[in-house]
Amino acid sequence: MTAIQDDLSSDSPSHPEEMKSVFDLRVGKHITLQGSARTTPAGVISTAIAVAAMTFAVGYLISSVNRRRW
After folding, report:
1. What are phi and psi for residue 42, nearest 5 degrees?
2. Has UniProt tagged this entry with the keyword Membrane (predicted)?
3. What is the pLDDT of residues 32-66, one digit of tens each?
């Protein structure tokens, strides 16, 4: 992204309820990680539903394998 595009994207949120997060992580003297995230409440709920569905599916597969062995 150019500097102009970066300035425009930081000034105007794409969603009125958008949540932003920025972090800096230092590991020792030479390693620095910087990150940022943007999300909406709908994105948080969708992620939670997807994680729950995958957890239930993996739990079902594990219980199915355990039943097959006996």
Report:
1. -65, -35
2. yes
3. 999 999 999 999 999 999 999 999 999 999 998 87
Q: How far apart are CA 62 and CA 70, in angstroms?
A: 13
Q: What is the largest CA-CA distance in the chain?
A: 64
Place of tokens 């102009």: 4
Question: Does 9 score more than 70 pLDDT?
Answer: no
Rounded-to-integer distance, Cα 27 and Cα 42, Å: 33
Annotate 14-44 with b (16+ C-beta within 10 A) or e (fewer): eeeeeeeeeeeeeeeeeeeeeeeeeeeeeee
